[in-house]
Amino acid sequence: MIVLSELGTRLKEARIAKGYSLEDLQDLTKIQKRYLAGIEDGNHSMMPGAFYIRAFIRQYAAAVGLNGEELLEQHKLEMPADQPAAQPQMPNTFSSRSRSVTRTAPNEAYAEFIPKVLVALFIVLILAVAWYFYSASTNRDSTGTPVEEGNGVPYETPAPAVPEETEEPIEEEPADEPAAEPEEPEAVLTVEGTQGETTTYSWQGPAERELEITASGPSWIAATDENQQELTSEARVMQAEETEKIDLSEVESVRLRIGDYSNITLTLNGEPIEYSQNIQPQNIVIQFRNAE
C-alpha cells in the first residue's frame, strides 16, 4: 500500500470544489471509480503499476483544473518506484508427464499395428475389384457369342438389315444460368478526427464484426461500448503473446483505452487498425455503420 495523503487530499478538495462526485469524475476521465477512490485515499494496491498511477493522476488533475505534472513533481518523493512485471510461474508438469507416458505406451504399439492392417486391407480391396471386373468381362464375352452344337465353334448370327432413319437433331434448350451470389459489402475504416488523447474512426462494412487485440508486450487495455459496459473479460494489463477477441456485431460503437500502443495490435475483421497518434496512453473510438 502506498500512502499519498497530501496529494490525494489536494485532488479530492479540487474535485469537491468543482462540485464533482466520483461518478461524475469517472464519466469525465473514463477511469474506474475504484481507482479514483484509491488515488484520493493513497491506496494503489489494486492498480496495474507505477506508470498507470502517474497517468491516472495526470487525468484526475486535468479534470479538476490542476496541473498534473506540477503535482507529480512536487510529490515525486511520495511516488512509487517502477517495478518490473512479475514473471509468470511455470507449472510443474514433470510428474504428470511421466504418468501420461506410462498410460500411452500400449497405445503407441497399437498405433504402429494399425497402418499395417490398413495397407493389407487396401491390397485385398484392390485385388477384389480387379477380380470383379475380370469376371464381369469374361461372362459378357461368353454370353454374347453363340456356339454351334457338335464342334463347339462359335459363329456370329447376321443381323437383319434395317433401313437407316435420319434423326432430326434435337435442339438443346440453354440451361438457366445460376443467379449471381450477392457480394459481401466491402469494409471501409476512416479516421474522423483526433482530440487530445482520443482518435475517432468510422467503420462501414458487414454487420458481423470481430475485434482482435494482440499484445507483444505489457500494456493496459480496456474496452467499453456506447453504454460504458465492459466488453473485454476484464480491464487489465495484457502480457506478451496474449490475445483477446471481442464480438462487436451488436454494439454501435467501441472505446478502447490503451496504455502502451506500441505493444498492442488491433485488427477488425482481419484488417489492421493503424494508429494516427504516437502518444501513450491514448483512446481509440470506432463508430459502426452497416453497409447498404
UniProtKB/TrEMBL annotation:
Q: Which UniProt keywords apply?
A: Membrane, Transmembrane, Transmembrane helix
Determine if Hydrolase is one of this entry's keywords.
no
Give me the ranges of the annotated region Disordered: 140-187
- Keyword presence, Transmembrane helix: yes
Q: Which residues form the HTH cro/C1-type domain?
A: 11-45
- Record's compositionally biased regions (Acidic residues): 164-186
Coiled coil feature spans? none
Query: Transmembrane region positions?
Result: 113-134
Domain of life, per the record? Bacteria
The record's InterPro entries line, in alphabetical order, gives:
Bact_Cytoskel_RodZ, Cro/C1-type_HTH, Lambda_DNA-bd_dom_sf, RodZ-like_C
What name does this protein carry?
DUF4115 domain-containing protein
